[in-house]
UniProtKB/TrEMBL annotation:
Gene3D superfamilies xref list: Ribosomal RNA adenine dimethylase-like, domain 2 (1.10.8.100), Vaccinia Virus protein VP39 (3.40.50.150)
Family annotation (SMART domains): rADc (SM00650)
Superkingdom of the source species: Bacteria
Similarity comment: Belongs to the class I-like SAM-binding methyltransferase superfamily. rRNA adenine N(6)-methyltransferase family. RsmA subfamily.
Transmembrane segments: none
Record's keyword terms, sorted: Cytoplasm, Methyltransferase, RNA-binding, rRNA processing, S-adenosyl-L-methionine, Transferase
Localization terms from the record: Cytoplasm
Catalytic reaction equation(s): adenosine(1518)/adenosine(1519) in 16S rRNA + 4 S-adenosyl-L-methionine = N(6)-dimethyladenosine(1518)/N(6)-dimethyladenosine(1519) in 16S rRNA + 4 S-adenosyl-L-homocysteine + 4 H(+)
E.C. code: 2.1.1.182
The protein's role, per its UniProt record: Specifically dimethylates two adjacent adenosines (A1518 and A1519) in the loop of a conserved hairpin near the 3'-end of 16S rRNA in the 30S particle. May play a critical role in biogenesis of 30S subunits.
Gene symbol of the encoding locus: rsmA
UniProt-listed NCBIfam families: ksgA
Predominant localisation class: cytoplasm
Protein name: Ribosomal RNA small subunit methyltransferase A
Organism for this UniProt entry: Leptospirillum ferrooxidans (strain C2-3)
Length: 283
């Protein structure tokens, strides 16, 4: 049985949210959630490879691996261990600024404008902004296997009406399919975080047109505004979110949507946010 990985001396940088996975058997479980039907030559991006424990497991899953690392102090070790392996590219970059699915870099090898996948033990301090970035790019990845703080993972997969249900839940339901596949204790990392972690498998939605994508974007803008008043009724929340709009306009919008004005925001289904948004655009 594989034992915990011994982490070489490296002061984890709190500002980068660094908590290195240490158990090779867990790393293998994580990469095994990747869809085996997707061709191995499909580019696979690992964000924040750190000490390379996930990287080692990913080598058997792809022949086209891109390691995206922001911490320049980790680049020499990654280069020494993986830089000469065919099909592995090491790029020093900030994932928040990297052009996923767009721009000249995406149109050039190894992507060449085609499909790609993402795997990452995400830095928890930027995990949600990164997730929204992945989903909003013109060409989202085919699939993502991502690690989050457990509370964030619960919000991602939450059902309508639950305590964890909110804007993030709506955004995921309208933009992708997601399921939590693995929970991890703090002791699986070095340094051990103060929170538990969860791995989520995400398959972004394929939009038929730019117009459809724009409709979802509008629905998410509405969701974000209304969840500022999550316990208010739909009628009241709309008036608070859009104070410049006459009350009679919202009465018409709600009536045309076929919803009850007394329904609370936290009880609205993801598709109902979409419906309200569409109705607002049409009236």
């Amino acid at each position: 049985m594989e034992k915990m990985m011994t982490i070489p001396p490296h002061r984890a940088r709190k500002s980068l949210g660094q908590n290195f996975l240490t158990d090779p058997s867990i790393a293998q479980k994580i990469v095994d959630f990747l869809d085996p039907a997707i061709p191995k030559e499909t580019p696979l991006i690992e964000i924040g490879p750190g000490k390379g424990i996930l990287t080692r497991a990913l080598l058997n899953k792809t022949s086209n691996l891109i390691l995206l690392e922001k911490d320049n102090t980790l680049i020499p070790d990654l280069t020494e261990r993986f830089g000469t392996i065919p099909g592995v590219r090491i790029i020093r970059a900030d994932a928040l600024d990297y052009p996923f699915g767009e721009g000249d870099a995406y149109q050039s090898p190894p992507f060449s404008g085609g499909d790609y996948r993402i795997v990452s033990n995400l830095p928890y301090n930027i995990s949600v902004p990164l997730l929204f970035r992945f989903l909003s790019t013109p060409k989202p990845p085919l699939e993502m296997v991502l690690m989050f703080q457990r509370e964030v993972a619960r919000r991602i997969v939450a059902s309508t009406g639950s305590d964890d249900y909110g804007h993030l839940s709506v955004a995921m339901a309208l933009s992708a399919s997601a399921r939590k596949v693995l929970d991890l204790k703090p002791g699986s990392f070095y340094p051990a975080p103060k929170v538990h972690s969860s791995v989520v498998l995400i398959q972004p939605r394929i939009f038929e047109s730019d117009g459809e994508r724009e409709q979802i974007r509008n629905a998410l803008t509405l969701s974000r505004k209304l969840f500022s008043y999550r316990r208010r009724t739909l009628q009241n929340a709309l008036q608070l979110a859009f104070p410049e709009t006459p009350k009679s306009d919202f009465e018409e919008i709600i009536n045309l949507s076929g919803l009850s004005p007394a329904k609370r925001v936290e009880r609205l289904l993801p598709e109902e946010f979409h419906l309200i948004s569409m109705t607002m655009q049409e009236t």
